[in-house]
Amino acid sequence: RTLEIMEKYLICESALVEEGGKGIRFPVLAGGDEATGFVVRFDGQAHAYLNRCAHVPVELDWTPGEFFEGSGLYIMCATHGAIYVPDTGHCTGGPCRGGRLRKSAVTEENGKIYWSADDYIAAPAG
């Protein structure tokens, strides 16, 4: 049985991602197209997603890194107000209720946050 080793890519220092605070954007390829991913912290855990609303394929943040609505409990799309649960990416309100964000595998080691590529989200060239 071989254990597949997924390549990990550094996003940032763990301390830069505060609970319910600003997220950190990072470049990815989504289905071969240039896109961005983002990482936020919720309930002490880092969660990374493709920065693309489940409703229409637009980026979620109000201004770069601003993903949470005012309470810091939900990720909200700036375009049409879709609301997502930060730890699962499931949409609980707005135009795409029942949809979800595309989650990306993320790990924290030695004070740094890394993401792993999958069959859809890959690292950009270079």
What does this protein structure show overall?
- This protein is mainly beta.
- It is 0% helix and 40% strand.
- The chain has no helices and 10 strands.
- A 7-stranded antiparallel sheet has the order 1-9-8-4-3-2-10, with no helix packed on it. The protein has a 3-stranded antiparallel sheet with strand order 5-6-7, with no helix packed on it.
- The model has no long low-confidence stretch (mean pLDDT 93).
The stretches of 5 or more residues where confidence is low (pLDDT under 50) are: none
Main sheet overview: 7 strands, antiparallel
Structural class, by secondary structure, is mainly beta
Based on DSSP secondary structure assignment, what is the total number of beta strands? 10
Shape: globular
Give the fraction of residues assigned to helices.
under 10%
Q: What percentage of the residues does DSSP assign to strands (E)?
A: 35-45%
Residue-averaged pLDDT, rounded? 93
Number of helices: 0
Structural Rg: 14 Å
Through-space gap between termini: 32 Å
The helix-strand sequence is EEEEEEEEEE
Strand order of the largest sheet: 1-9-8-4-3-2-10
Overview in brief:
The protein is mainly β and 126 residues long.
List the helices and strands and how they pair.
Elements: E1 8-13, E2 24-30, E3 33-42, E4 45-50, E5 75-76, E6 83-84, E7 91-93, E8 103-109, E9 112-116, E10 121-122
